[in-house]
Amino acid sequence: MNTIMDAIGIEIVEITKEKVTATMPVHGPTRQPYGLLHGGASVVLAETVASVGSMNLVDAETEAAVGLEINANHIRSVRDGNVTAVGKPLHIGRTTHIWEVKITDEATGKLVCVSRCTIAVIQK
């Protein structure tokens, strides 16, 4: 596929009903001009995790899961290596899902970003 996941290197590692895990490299396409992980790349990673998680919970034949709202707090900078995002659902409703996504630096295990994403469940 030709998606933003491919463009910046997001890989889904695990998908269950309780958790989604994905990784992303900190490299040229995900860095801002000062050489640090771009906050926008972290937000893309968080929304990807939440959307994939919700798609795993809906009827894919008749429904789709799309981002409705997202916020993120950028806590620590990362210059290289990989980051790991773990998303867990906080609320699974008929028309909305809310996910908390924590992104950590694989090298140190320290929290880099925390995000909350609301996903809308829509009819196809």
Q: Whole-number radius of gyration?
A: 14 Å
What is the distance, rounded to the nearest whole angstrom, between the alpha carbons of the first and last residues? Answer: 20 Å
Helix proportion = 10-25%
Largest sheet: 6 strands, antiparallel
Strand content: over 45%
Description:
This protein is of the alpha+beta class. The chain is 18% helix and 48% strand. The protein is built from 2 helices and 6 strands. The protein has helices at 4-8, 39-55, and strands at 11-15, 20-26, 63-74, 81-92, 96-105, 111-123. It has a 6-stranded antiparallel beta sheet with strand order 1-2-4-5-6-3. A hairpin with a 5-residue loop joins strand 5 and strand 6. The longest helix is centred in the middle third of the chain and has 17 residues, at 39-55. The chain is globular. The two termini are 20 Å apart. The model has no long low-confidence stretch (mean pLDDT 97).
Task: Produce the secondary structure layout.
Layout: H1 4-8, E1 11-15, E2 20-26, H2 39-55, E3 63-74, E4 81-92, E5 96-105, E6 111-123
Antiparallel strand pairs: 1-2, 2-4, 3-6, 4-5, 5-6
Concise structural overview:
The chain has two helices and six strands, in the order H-E-E-H-E-E-E-E. With 124 residues, it is of the alpha+beta class.
